[in-house]
Amino acid sequence: MIKAMGTDAHVLVLAGGLSYEREVSLRSGRRVLHALRAAGLSAEMRDADVSLLPTLREDPPSAVLIALHGATGEDGSLRGVLDLCDVPYVGCDARVSRLAWDKPSAKSMLREAGIPTPDWVALPHDRFSELGAVAVLDRITSRLGLPLMVKPAQGGSGLGAAVVKDEAALPAAMVGCFGYDSTALVERYVTGTSIAASIVDLGDGPQALPLVEIVPRNGVYDYAARYTAGLTTWHTPARLTAEVASRVSETALAAHKALGLRDLSRVDLIVDSADEPHVLGVNVAPGMTETSLLPLAVEAAGLDFGAMLATLVERAVARTH
Amino acid sequence: MTGTTQDDYTDRYARRVRGMTTSEIRALFAVASRPEVVSLAGGSPYIAALPLDAVGDMLSRLAAEHGTTSLQYGIGQGTVDLRERICEVMSLSGIDASPDDVVVTVGGQQALDLIARLFLDPGDVVLAEGPTYVGALGVFQAAQAQVQHVAMDADGMIPAALSEAIDEVARSGRRAKFLYTIPTYQNPAGVTLTDARREEVLDICERAGLLVVEDDPYSMLSFAGDAPRPLRARRREGVFYVSTFSKTFAPGLRVGWVLAPHAVREKLVMATEANILCPSAFAQAAVAQYLATMPWQEQIKTYREVYRERRDALLDAMRDLMPSGTTWTEPEGGLFVWATLPDGLDSKAMMPRAIAARVAYVPGTGFYADSTGTGNMRLNFSFSAPDRLREGVRRLAGVMGEELALRAVFGPTGQTRQRRRGAAGADAPGPDLA
User: Fold this and answer.
1) Of A278, A275, A291, A199, which Cα lies nearest the Cα of A239?
2) Of A165, A188, A211, which residue is a domain's last?
3) Which residues in B278-422 belong to E strands, given as ranges?
């Protein structure tokens, strides 16, 4: 497998960046780097900064593995630059990445494909000043009801997100959200079981790995709950009946395909009290930290994390030939 | 089919560790280390102003010529040579001390930790300025003590507020063990306790039987004339004096000290031996050699001049650019300016917007044991060049303007989510951020 890439195959892991998720990205990057080396690959990690392009030109890697979270890694722009440099990378292309990264765009595509996703409205902050915040918020609550989920239209790690149970708390949630992005996604809050479905394509088409069920100790899967070991319990496989788990996996796979994702992705879902799954969003550069969901699923599937990454790298390299 | 928390030790942690979590604010500081960001968030001295070649030669000789002692274990209290020199340094501030009563520590931080170990039982109260040094809050939190803040104004701690706080603690049936104070160029507020108030504060503490822990890292970094004499120069008994070479020489060496009342010295030495065995012999030798052979007082003058120019640049930019309703302190030394935001702005909620605009500061909440301080921020001026400081203020003013406009649209929203009491460190950067 590794020999197919040549003995001088070299993987560049990109991590860090200027996004709010820099710290998480650095943790993901280190984990990925370690796993690739353990799998026998030559790999190094670097930030996406002004020295990146000269390095790509002078010492082009066999492939890039993007562990950058936030805009640079996920909005397609960096992938577009890698395309310009003819450097292959693991994951979906620039166009697909841009659509998946923007939550309202992704939700529209999912709905068109008949995949359930909670009702929503996406509004930039200046629409509130134009039309009057009170009137707009009033319309939102009367249409979508309470509770509501408020989150930045673009972004991850739960940053800027809030569950709003009481109408009076909505303005503060909007202000908190607009700190992170100029557009807010306000979504009907679905009560149920939080599930992460990791999708990997190792050459036989996309497959869903064992589902991970997320149970935050304080009920909210916020930044601290995601990245402080001990604050969340993850059940792998999720505590669902085989029938429900199968339906959730199928829904996640359908989402992966509908959006045109490639190599790997993570689909986040809620399973409601009627056992129906609802897709909340997808990640094209899923977290790879010690407390991240995709590595848990890989382990539960009995796969070796490094070997899986090596296969994905090999597929990326092969695409260029 | 059991779950995992990715931390098999959850049920075994000591009580004082519970509640230590990562935080969104900490995550945002990670971005501040990139060169694109103007960081007003750190507390780093401008080490580039040191004669690094000469320091390098000195360190090289220390290893080559004195390695058998400088790379060996030392005594817990610290070398006699360095303690004597520390007494010479303190004498410049009017402190009369014997080397016997000095204990060398790993930065001023370990001195605070030793004092906490010696004096604080869980539930004890420490009085401290509000706001105060985040590292001290961390030490007191680890000792499971409660911090009662004492208000300040432009002249430092308000004596009447101190008396009131002492009474309030007594009324609640708790016991206050000591007053922790940074009287000169306070971190984070940048204010200095006046001469008259120094006497008043000492009198109040003496009457109440309250020890005083005086933390004095900045007093040599004055911009106009000398700082008022330290509390320890005015009273020997009941005052612990803590200082460091981090701001006058280099923080990378991690050398500080505590001058303790004679009776306490022995216990401090035993506590430090239990804690770290002995301070680094090499770092102590480096500081002693630096003081003996290099023009260290000239170097402090250089630091003062650099910082005064930078303080002026920061304050000028604030006067020119900050939105109306913003106020700030005007420090006469040290490293920090404390800003108070226009009504309705929340420095913690504004952080992501600031990071997106490539400027960083520390939200005021990082300097209080409770969650107050949302309307404040600390700005550092020691590390960035004057033009960068101005650019930082320009970006910050833009961020504040946008946030004010947004808040005008949504109206009063109340405070952001409350932080767990005592976890101030979650709202402040690590020590490595410049």
Assistant:
1) A275
2) A188
3) 327-328, 336-340, 359-360, 362-363, 376-380
B403 CB neighbours in chain A (<8 A) are 179
Q: Rounded CA gap, A280 and A197, in Å?
A: 11
- Low pLDDT (below 70) residues in chain B: 1, 414-422
**Closest-CA residue of chain A to B411:** A171
Q: For residue range A199-248, what is the model confidence (pLDDT) as tens digits? A: 999 999 999 999 999 999 888 888 888 888 888 999 999 999 999 999 99
Residues of chain B numbered 345-384 and touching chain A (CB < 8 Å): 349-353, 355, 358
Domain ranges of chain B: 14-50+299-426, 69-293
Q: What pLDDT sits at residue A2? A: 43
What CA–CA distance (Å, rounded) separates B184 from B93?
12
The CATH H-level (homologous superfamily) assignment of domain B14-50+299-426 is Aspartate Aminotransferase, domain 1 (3.90.1150.10)
- Complex ipTM value: 0.85
The distance of B234 to chain A (nearest Cα, Å) reads 47
Residue B148 tokens read as 């009662």
CATH label of the domain that carries residue A52: 3.40.50.20
Q: Are residues A251 and A106 in the same domain?
A: yes
CA distances to A10, A35, A36, A55, A65 from A44, in Å? 8, 11, 9, 12, 10
Range of the domain at A39: 10-92+311-318
Q: Are A204 and A263 contained in the same domain?
A: yes
> How far is B302 from A139, CA to CA, in rounded Å?
62
What number is the average pLDDT over the span A49-61? Answer: 94
Rounded to two decimals, the pTM is 0.91
Q: Are residues A249 and A205 in the same domain?
A: yes
Contact list, B3 vs chain A (CB under 8 Å): 213, 215, 233-236
Q: What total of structural domains would you count in chain A?
A: 3
